[in-house]
Amino acid sequence: MINKINRINKIINRDKKAAGKKITRAAAVFFAVAIIAVLLFCLVSCSGVAFVPGASFGYFIWEDKDSNIHIAWSVDRKDTNFEGRITTDGAIGAYELVGFEDSDKFEISQAKDSMGFDANLSEDDFSDELIFKAEGYSYIEFELKINDAYDLSRTNLGAFLNSPDQGVFRIDKGYFDKISDMPIYTKHPLSGFLYKLAKDIRFTVFYLFVFGAIAIEIIRITALRKNKKYNWYLFLCYGVLILLIFIVYILLKRIT
């Protein structure tokens, strides 16, 4: 009788351990899928710009689904002056000022082809926004300054936060649609990261192989060691690693 009870207890404990491992693996897979889903959502979303007023610093420009152009500026809770002028070869239609204080300045030309602002942000007032609709235009020209100077690295265009090449810059009609249609690897900030990797492709490939081999060895020791299909899974892991490295190599060669 005692032997039967012991065997039953062993079976129960074994089943509990197996169930615990399955739950742990399922949870790991779930969180990995969730993280990948969030990253993909952030990468493919071009409908707006994600920034945190009071934490993000700079200009953020995007176009919404109703073809309204948004220019928002934010500062990390310190006294900062934002000054800008927007000009177009068409006409500026309806516009809205969001967060402007009485001391902030805004003007629009009589021809409604140009407008400017001069606004100060502080610890208590850390974000403003100008929303407008441009009509019958082929370009919109921006001149945006922070504390009376151009800061291109803090001027962000579209959801992928592209930066202009010069202080006075233009965007063509349909610019934001073109960004959304661009291949993912050509979009900022991913494009900048890939260009850095592409400067030395052989080192990058070697680094990826070493990093991948370390990851596979960790998987081998922790998850594959007692698996009946150990050799097959190990071969599969290295095959996937080599395939990923080949894809990265082709991608970097296309960029260069």
CATH topology of the largest domain: Immunoglobulin-like
Rg, alpha carbons: 27 Å
User: Which whole number gives the mean pLDDT?
Assistant: 77
How many structurally independent domains? 3
Q: Which ranges are low-confidence, i.e. pLDDT below 50, for 5 or more consecutive residues?
A: 39-47
Proportion in β-strands: 25-35%
Shape: elongated
Structure class: alpha+beta
Topology as H/E string? HEEEEEEEEEEHHHH
Biggest sheet, spatial arrangement of strands: 4-7-2-1-9
CATH architecture of the largest domain: Sandwich
Terminal Cα span: 75 Å
Considering DSSP H and I runs of 4 or more, what fraction of the residues is helical? 40-55%
Count of β-strands: 10
Structure commentary:
This protein has 256 residues and is of the alpha+beta class. 43% of the residues lie in helices and 26% in strands. The protein contains five helices and ten strands; from the N terminus they run αββββββββββαααα. The strands form two sheets. A five-stranded mixed beta sheet has the order 4-7-2-1-9, with no helix packed on it. Strands 5-6-3-8-10 form a five-stranded antiparallel beta sheet, with no helix packed on it. The chain starts with a helix and ends with a helix.
